[in-house]
Design a protein that fits this description.
By secondary structure, the protein is α/β, with parallel strands linked by helices. It contains 29 helices and 24 strands. The protein has a six-stranded parallel β-sheet, with helices on both faces. A six-stranded mixed β-sheet has the order 7-6-8-9-10-12, with helices on both faces. The longest helix has about 70 residues. One of its GO terms (molecular function) is phosphorelay sensor kinase activity.
Length: about 950
């Protein structure tokens, strides 16, 4: 484009802009409609019916954006309402809507407003004067009459009625009572026995009604002046056990989950009288008055009875109306948005038209710049495409690195789990030889102690690897309980006293206060302080000093724990990496796994604390743990945490206290050589180890997978089962669930053995039905005593079942699987009592099991044989039949399946120490 062609185009553009400006001026909006101010004096807005009234007003007002609406809530106070109406008069509102708290106190101020020429719309509650512009509300006299007629038809003209009145002096309460009384007069058989003033509120009814109901127990129906008081009456009746006899009806019929319609549908109320709030009608009447349109002075809202016959229809209609109203409101919002958009666009057009005038002058420069920009944009597009390609490559590399890291960590974790099985086979025999074995030479005991220390050190490394994995994936929860931090740290330091004393190291503890209460997780902080003290002991020279101090800092809402030593210190090269996982410093002595300090830092941060250090080479180091005095409620636990003693710093001789030597003896005598223990363990060495340790005390059978174990348990019905969690195909948790779900094996105690030691995993095992959950490596003596204790507890349970079956009624409520088995067994025996040839095989066949399985199940649950159990049921039934004088003793004997009366008499006397004839004579004499 050359200059000669550009200038005419420019002038044409300027002319077009001027035309647009003239058009916009001509399209300015017309004169806006006049604005009105409506004041609403509400007696109270504290109940659902009043809120529904206000919601209706606001819905209708959405059609009149020119109206300024103001509301004042009197909170059921007539004096306050009079004051608020005077404030409206001073504000010179264009129209006043009044819903009076009480008729007489509010009438004078309403008359004053009317006489001043201010239109007054009376809503719901009338005043005692006719000086008002219009009335909108229901006919309370008609509401009372409708309720009375409904009560008459519901009670068929006969019954006693109790009335719950509204607030004294309120016109709705007066008119509803008068209409109700007039309607009841048409039914001579209906009696209004009592009245209760409920003040329109549910708590008042619940406080006063119980006394009245006790005075008038003959009440058949309660009529409450609103649904809130009706709900209170229903709750009182339910509490007194009268809700099935006394019917309750109310007034309002509001929609919603807490409205009268829902109460009727749920059967709480027998019926409710529809009493529309009238909010929409009040605004419509007010706008007719303000716009000088024709209006009615008396606007009476209709009422109707809502009961079970029409409540669903009414509810659907109200929900439909609500949905339509929401659509209207949504359309109004959209319309307003369009109006706002139009106004903003109009302003923008003014600005754009003016801007176009200046833009024409710069048009040539823009055109020239456009060509240069297009060239630059093309270059930028090529560069952006190259950057995008590089970013995609980086994301692919990052995802690949993440997958590889996750695979390494998963292998890391699984490998750590696998280490627990050989540690079990090492620590188990060693612990038993050291605690319960025969006397051995000192050299051998020293060698065994060396084996135990190094095996425990391996266990320490495994535990630290597991903690590292839990922190890395965020699976280590904090369960803080409140305790004394000073006592907690002192207990940890006690473990270090002996090795420190052996090296002449002074171990000092300097708490600022004797008691410092704190919310903390004992298992987390135990590992933190063990690592810090182990690290200090490792790098402190002989006859050195280690000082642990505790100082609360109230100003910072924290507590500071410092561990200070005078060892070799940390070099400048190591300071930047001291908290990195698996980092080992440049020093040539006291090398470790490189996990202790990194684990301590991770656990401290998990506890929302900080771990810092200061160090000078050759002068020692100070590690400081800063913990918050308070923890969020999500990290707190009501139940105290069990301290899991970690095996930290074992290379310094700090060993965890094992089982006390006296545990090597027999602690329980609940098991005998007849008890059968089933071991389910897939590792052949662990399986053989368990069998070897248990065979001197029990009969032992073994299985190497879950399916075989379930089959052997069902066939042999063992007295106890020891099962590993990690089994091929069918896991130990699934084995436990199937054992507890099968009535043949539901009574058998189950001990789970696993290398998974996380608290949530232990909870999972107990929830599956396990009676005991032991983590590997375990102490064989502790396992043996645990089995004896479980068998002893099982004997107590058998005694409980025997006592439960020794009463006159021989059936047991099938609340658990074992009780259901006993109930089924008892039912089969009772159905065949008359058969003298009834055998154990017959009962087992009816239950679908073998004779051996039935015998072992009954023996395990009740401690008795099947024949004795059948005999016990027959003799218990005999006591009942002997109380019937019409049956002879011989008839009782044959009816219960005894082969002869003499055998019956002998058995009965052996059981109850009296003969059947003596038992009957005693009963006859007592009667």
């Amino acid at each position: 484009m050359n200059r000669c062609s550009f200038l005419p185009a420019f002038f044409r553009l300027c002319g077009l802009c001027c035309g647009i400006l003239l058009w916009l001026v001509g399209c300015s909006p017309s004169t806006p409609p006049p604005k009105y101010t409506i004041g609403f004096s509400q007696c109270t807005n504290g109940d659902a019916w009043r809120q529904a009234m206000l919601a209706g007003m606001q819905k209708e007002l959405s059609f009149y954006p020119e109206v300024r609406f103001r509301i004042k809530d009197a909170h059921d106070d007539s004096r306050l309402q009079e004051k608020q109406i005077r404030e409206f008069l001073r504000e010179k509102v264009d129209l006043l809507i009044v819903s009076a708290n009480e008729a007489e106190p509010i009438t004078p101020i309403v008359e004053e407003a009317f006489n001043r020429g201010i239109p007054v719309v009376i809503l719901d509650r009338r005043t005692t004067s006719k000086l008002y512009t219009a009335y909108v509300g229901g006919n309370n006299l008609e509401v009372g009459q409708a309720a009375g007629n409904y009560v008459g038809n519901l009670l068929q003209g006969r019954g006693n009625v109790l009335e719950v009145l509204g607030a004294p002096g309120a016109s709705p309460a007066v008119d509803r009572h008068r209409g109700f009384a007039q309607a009841l007069a048409s039914y001579p058989g209906l009696h209004l026995v009592a009245q209760v003033h409920g003040d329109w509120k549910r708590p008042s009814v619940m406080a006063r009604l119980p006394t009245i109901l006790r005075q008038h127990p003959e009440t058949n129906l309660i009529f409450a002046h609103n649904d809130r008081m009706a709900l209170g009456a229903y709750q009182v009746c339910k509490k007194l056990g009268l809700d099935q006899r006394i019917r309750v009806i109310g007034v309002d019929g509001l929609p919603g989950p807490h409205g009268g319609l829902q109460f009727v549908q749920d059967g709480v109320l027998a019926a409710t009288m529809l009493y529309p709030p009238g909010g929409e009608e009040a605004i419509r009447t007010a706008m007719k008055i303000l716009r000088k349109e024709t209006y009615e002075k008396e606007n009476t809202l209709s009422t109707m009875v809502i009961d079970s016959t029409n409540v669903l229809t009414m509810k659907l209609q109200t929900e439909k109306l609500t949905s339509q109203q929401q659509d209207i409101q949504r359309q109004q919002r959209l319309l307003q948005q369009q109006r706002d958009t139009y106004a903003s666009q109009q302003t923008v057009l003014y600005v754009l038209a003016a801007a176009l005038l200046g833009a024409g002058v710069l048009g040539l420069l823009v055109w020239r710049a456009f060509r240069a920009n297009r060239r630059i944009n093309r270059q930028l597009g090529e560069q952006n495409q190259e950057i995008l390609s590089q970013r995609n490559q980086i994301q692919e590399f990052a995802e690949r690195a993440r997958v590889e890291t996750e695979a390494k960590l998963r292998f890391f974790t699984n490998f750590s789990h696998e280490l627990r099985t050989p540690l079990t086979l090492i620590l188990g025999p060693v612990e038993e030889m050291l605690t319960s074995g025969p006397e051995m030479p000192a050299a051998q005991r020293q060698d065994l102690g060396l084996i135990r220390r190094n095996a425990q050190r391996l266990l320490q490394l495994v535990n630290q690897l597991m903690d590292f994995r839990k922190i890395d994936v965020g699976k280590m929860p904090v369960r803080a309980t409140e305790g004394n931090l000073v006592a907690f740290v002192r207990e940890i330091m006690d473990v270090f006293e002996r090795p420190a004393r052996q090296r002449g190291i002074s171990l000092r503890f300097l708490p600022a206060e004797p008691v410092i209460p704190l919310w903390f997780d004992v298992n987390i902080l135990d590992k933190v302080f063990f690592n810090l003290l182990s690290n200090a002991l490792k790098f402190t020279p002989d006859r050195g000093h280690i000082t642990v101090s505790i100082q609360p800092l109230p100003a910072d809402r924290t507590v500071r724990i410092s561990v200070e030593d005078d060892g070799s210190g940390i070099s400048d090269e190591d300071k930047a990496h001291i908290f990195e996982w698996f980092y080992q410093g440049q020093q040539s002595v006291a090398k470790g796994s490189g996990m202790g300090l990194a684990l301590a830092l991770g656990l401290t941060r998990l506890h929302q604390g900080q771990l810092t250090f200061t160090s000078q080479p050759g002068k020692g180091s100070t590690f400081v743990v800063t913990l918050p005095l308070e923890l969020p409620a999500t990290l707190r636990s009501d139940s105290p945490s069990a301290l899991v003693s970690p095996a930290f710093a074992l290379d310094e001789g700090i060993t965890n206290p094992g089982l006390a030597p006296d545990l090597a003896g027999t602690l329980a005598t609940g098991a005998s050589s007849e008890a059968l223990v089933l071991v389910i363990e897939d590792n052949p060495e662990v399986n053989a180890f368990l069998a070897q340790k248990l065979q001197p005390h029990f009969q032992v059978s073994t299985a190497f997978d879950g399916a075989t174990g379930l089959r052997m348990a069902a066939e042999s019905i063992p007295d106890l089962i020891v099962c590993d969690v990690m089994l091929p195909e069918l896991s130990g948790l699934e084995v436990v669930a199937q054992l507890k779900g099968d009535w043949r094996t539901s009574h058998i105690p189950v001990v789970l053995l696993t290398a998974r030691n996380a608290p949530e995993q232990q909870v999972e095992g107990v929830q599956a039905g396990a009676d005991l959950y032991l983590t590997k490596p375990f102490n064989p003596t502790f396992l043996l005593e645990s089995l004896r204790t479980l068998l002893a507890n099982r004997e107590k349970q058998r005694e409980h079942f025997r006592r439960e079956l020794s009463v006159d009624t021989v059936t047991v409520a099938p609340q658990r699987v074992d009780q259901k088995f006993l109930a089924d067994l008892t039912a089969i025996i009772e159905a065949n009592l008359s058969r003298s040839e009834l055998s154990v095989e017959d009962v087992a066949r009816s239950l679908g099991i073998s004779r051996v399985q039935l015998y072992r199940k009954v023996k395990a649950v009740l401690g008795t044989g099947v024949t004795d159990f059948i005999q016990g049921i027959r003799l218990t039934k005999a006591r009942q039949l002997l109380l019937d004088d019409e049956l002879t003793i011989a008839e009782v004997a044959y009816q219960l399946g005894f082969s002869s009366p003499s055998y019956f008499s002998t058995s009965f006397k052996a059981r109850y120490q009296v003969s059947p004839s003596e038992f009957r004579a005693m009963h006859t004499t007592a009667g």
